[in-house]
Design brief:
The protein has 243 residues and is of the alpha/beta class. The chain has two domains: 188 residues, Glutaconate Coenzyme A-transferase (3-Layer(aba) Sandwich); 36 residues, no CATH class. Strands 1, 2, 3, 4, 5, 9, 10, 11 and 12 form a nine-stranded mixed sheet that branches. The chain has a three-stranded antiparallel sheet with strand order 6-8-7. A hairpin with a 4-residue loop joins β9 and β10.
């Protein structure tokens, strides 16, 4: 079995330009929720690769000086497919000045689009967004409710499958089996299945056989490379009590 463990993020990406996995105009899936569970060091390595014109699928776009905000600073992202982007001033500036394409999704719809892409499902129907601008330009059909209730309209949404996925986990073994910690399970497990090539950034690497099968969240057959890093674990919004 090929070695999946790489010493650092630079080496984990070093040959991906030459092989065509990283290329201008690619679609990149980035896991996490806010600043929790984001592959922060892999994002820096992707920035330093110089790739341009990225379509980025991520729940949000980091903050101005961290996470995907770093790729927005260098204008390497052409389009964001996201749910929540309210913490990033540079994102707002680029969007309002027509420098950045944005495809907004309801959060559950985005999660299902990623899951569907990983499961090989090209499209699905959801009632979320009917009667709003989310439905503009999309196919709408009427179906009976699954529970036998009144018929209603549903929007067709497409699955998402990327060229590269960058994900974050708490722990990996030498085969690439992954365990996530709490909120980091938002989007990371689904994105691990929804790309041609997947790199996992982890806090800890343990010997093969150390993980009990019941605690593994993502099987290693989905993971191409693993790199252990030291996370900064920034807080997106610090709130303290008075007194």
């Amino acid at each position: 079995m090929a070695n999946k463990i790489f010493p650092n993020t630079v080496s984990a990406m070093a040959d991906l330009r030459e092989s065509g996995i990283i290329h201008d105009g690619m679609m990149c899936m980035v896991g996490g929720f806010g600043l929790c569970g984001i592959p922060e060091q892999l994002i820096i390595a992707l920035r330093d690769s110089g790739v341009k014109g990225i379509t980025c699928v991520s729940n949000n776009a980091g903050v101005d000086d961290w996470g995907l905000g770093l790729l927005l600073q260098t204008k390497q992202i052409k389009k964001m497919i996201s749910s929540y982007v309210g913490e990033n001033d540079e994102f707002a500036r680029q969007y309002l000045n027509n420098e950045l394409e944005v495809e907004f999704n309801p959060q559950g719809t985005l999660a299902e689009r990623v899951r569907a892409g990983g499961a090989g499902i090209p499209a699905f129907f959801t009632a979320t967004g009917v009667g709003t601008i989310v439905a503009d330009g999309k196919e709408i059909r009427t179906f009976a409710a699954p529970n036998g209730g009144q018929s209603r309209e549903y929007i067709m949404e497409t699955g998402l499958f990327g060229d590269l996925a960058l994900i974050k986990a708490a722990k990996a073994d030498e085969h690439g089996n992954l365990v996530y910690n709490m909120t980091a399970r938002n989007f990371n497990p689904d994105m691990a299945t929804a790309a041609k090539f997947v790199i996992a950034e982890v806090d800890e690497i343990v010997p093969a056989g150390s993980l009990h099968p019941d605690e593994i969240h993502t099987p290693g057959n989905y993971i191409d490379r693993v790199v252990m890093t030291k996370s900064e674990k920034r807080i997106e919004q610090r709130t303290v009590s008075e007194g």
